[in-house]
Design brief:
Radius of gyration: 44 Å
Number of helices: 20
Strand content: 15-25%
CATH architecture of the largest domain: 3-Layer(aba) Sandwich
């Protein structure tokens, strides 16, 4: 049985009137251990015949049997396996991968067999040593002469055993001395049991073969009977199964890192889009979350368990001049269930004086329950009591800003101050509160009992508003309805407005969430642009490395191996860019915090941004990877 049997093989290119027949009814048998030369002029079809024999191309018609098995209709991966296990290629232009050293080039076929890295490195070094290149193992192709590159190519063809060596014009680019060395190597390989198929136009080179097959215009002109060389054994050394997925991914990562390192500047430019996108997402989200927290904290400082009642019809502006709320309303509200306290409030701008210091601020006349309802502690002294309120005591509690400005370094407790020329005694200082939800300084205020403050300073019969503390916040909506019903019964009309602070906070939180999402969306656009950049660069990379893809396919890489390699490259770029972007985004947030911009650090923006970067690489890297995997080996090898 012949090792290779071609029967009625045709190969046509194009279609319709443009169809060209390159091989016409080729019949050919080659036995194990033969040294066969296929000779013909340029354009005779000999290279196309070699491509079909080497499973780089498929015949348009006819039967191709390898070891008696018809492989004419094998799928791409089946042909890749056959190339990997049985064929070794030696090309006229060497076809070495320029980003790999000599020993790494020799190793390439074994990457796709599952052989361990240590074993394949040892075998590659042994092959280079047998060809006199052990001292050039770590040299790149550009550092080797033409003869040395061809010997590296021969070593690569033997890496998986090289049962059949296909040599396409192996001496065409060499000087005469180097050409003789290559022919002698091929003769030695034949003596060791390898089947050699030499493609050449040089009759002198072809004369070393056991038999010469002449081809012209796609037809076999001379085809002597194959020689039966039974004494030679098959020296094939191959892996019998495909490597595990984990092993394939590890190898793809290694190859991807090597490729990215060789194109460092382009890799950095590709990273830049991802880095900017991820950093923008993180910085925007931390700033957005910080703004949200700041606003909500300020609103929450007013109390989440508070209901405010203002005078005036619903949907009107109202104000203290609207005469609808009175003290008896406060007492009635205080009797309702789930109400801690109902407090009347009146405010007025006043002028304070202590010794020679004057200070303008706001007087807030309210109830003894104010610190409890507002959840606002005192820094020093005490707050006025119910007895003080009942007795119209002229006592006052100062806000932190007022105390510092009016008394400077003195202790205010027990001192007397003039409020619009009315003397009040200072009995306490509130703890520092900071800015309100509206941006006002909450510490720029003083507090007095409603009774004495309204009587002596404000002089207002009707209330500015009523502040109501709620005991069980889960029932705040029911309590709000009870207050409305009570006041409608008392007034006979709804001449008031009720504001539920819990609902206000919920609405503000929704607004802030929308704002944060808007910021995140704007930043995500830059990440999308970065992803498009990854795709563009990877497409350029596929175009630039078309020949490398062809080399890997010729040495046994399956479509999925090629796809894995380019997809992993995109993922590595995106993941590494994501990590740098995370660091940069957090650094920007840290710097912004020094400018008193509210920042909130959380793990979710980091996870979100990094995940987006990773999946950006996956999505935008898929198209270039698929394009690479779908390349025809013959077309890829001819690429530049």
């Amino acid at each position: 049985m012949s090792l290779i049997e071609l029967k009625d093989i045709y190969r046509r290119f194009g279609s319709g009137d443009n169809k060209i027949t390159v091989l016409n009814n080729v019949n050919l048998n080659i036995n194990q251990g033969e040294f066969v030369a296929i000779i013909g002029a340029s354009g005779s079809g000999k290279s196309t015949l070699m491509n079909i024999i080497g499973c780089l191309d498929k015949p348009s018609a006819g039967v191709y049997k390898f070891k008696g098995k018809d492989i004419s209709h094998f799928k791409k991966d089946e042909l890749a396996r056959l190339r990997r296990e049985s064929f070794g290629f030696i090309f006229q232009s060497y076809h070495l991968i320029h980003s790999l050293t000599a020993v790494e080039n020799v190793e390439v076929p074994s990457i796709y067999t599952g052989e361990t890295r240590a074993d394949r490195r040892q075998r590659a070094l042994e092959l280079l040593k047998s060809l006199g290149l052990e001292h050039r193992a770590d040299f790149y192709p550009s550092q080797l002469s033409g003869g040395q590159q061809q010997r590296v190519s021969i070593a690569r063809s033997l890496m998986n055993g090289g049962q059949i060596i296909l040599a396409d014009e192996p001496t065409g680019a060499l000087d005469s001395k180097s050409g003789e060395e290559v022919i002698n190597l091929l003769l030695k390989l034949c003596d060791l049991g390898h089947t050699i198929i030499l493609i050449t136009h040089d009759t002198k080179v072809a004369s070393h073969a056991h038999r010469i097959i002449e081809i012209k215009d796609g037809e076999i002109l001379s085809n002597p009977q194959p020689k039966n060389i039974s004494s030679k054994k098959d020296n094939t050394k191959i892996a019998k199964k495909d490597p595990a997925l984990f092993f394939e991914i590890i190898e793809a990562v290694s190859m991807a890192i090597s490729s990215l390192r060789m194109n460092l500047f382009r890799t950095i430019l590709t990273l830049l889009g991802i880095v900017i996108g991820v950093a923008s997402v993180i910085a925007m989200l931390t700033v957005g979350d910080g703004a949200k927290k700041s606003v909500l904290d300020r609103v929450s400082s007013m109390g989440t368990n508070i209901i405010m009642v203002f005078p005036g019809m619903p949907n009107s502006r109202g104000g203290s001049s609207v005469e609808t709320l009175v003290l008896s309303d406060v007492d009635a509200i205080g009797e309702l269930d789930n109400v801690i306290a109902a407090m009347p409030e009146a405010r007025k701008s006043v002028t304070l004086r202590y010794n020679n210091n004057d200070r303008t601020t706001n007087l807030n006349a309210n109830s003894w329950a104010y610190p409890t309802v507002r959840n606002w502690d005192l820094a020093k002294g005490v707050f006025f009591t119910k007895e003080d309120e009942d007795n119209y005591a002229k006592v006052v509690v100062l806000g932190d800003s007022v105390a510092n400005d009016l008394f400077e370094n003195q202790d205010p407790i027990g001192q007397y101050i003039l409020i619009n020329n009315i003397m009040f005694q200072v009995i306490g200082i509130m703890s520092k509160k900071g800015a309100s939800a509206m941006g006002d300084d909450e510490d720029d205020v003083i507090f007095a009992p409603y009774s004495s403050g309204n009587l002596h300073i404000i002089g207002q019969k009707y209330l500015r508003n009523v502040r109501i503390g709620i005991e069980d916040i889960t029932k705040i909506s029911q309590t709000e309805e009870s207050i409305k019903e009570l006041l409608i019964r008392r007034h006979g009309v709804e001449d008031f407005r009720v504001l539920n602070m819990g609902s206000l906070i919920e609405n503000m939180e929704e607004t802030q969430n929308t704002f944060t999402m808007l910021l995140g969306s704007i930043a995500a656009i830059s990440l999308l642009v970065g992803g498009i950049g990854v795709m563009n660069i990877m497409l350029v990379s596929v175009t630039e490395r078309t020949k490398e893809i062809g080399i890997r396919m010729a040495t046994g890489a399956r479509a999925k191996n090629i796809m894995q390699q380019f997809l992993v490259e995109a993922l590595i770029v995106s993941a590494f860019g994501g990590l740098i972007g995370v660091f940069l985004g957090l650094s920007i947030s840290f710097i912004l915090s020094y400018f008193e911009i509210p920042i909130v650090y959380s793990i979710m923006p980091v996870i979100l941004a990094f995940s987006c970067a990773f999946f950006t690489g996956l999505i935008f890297g898929f198209l270039p990877a698929r394009k690479a995997a779908e390349l025809n080996p013959v077309v890829a090898l001819a690429g530049e």
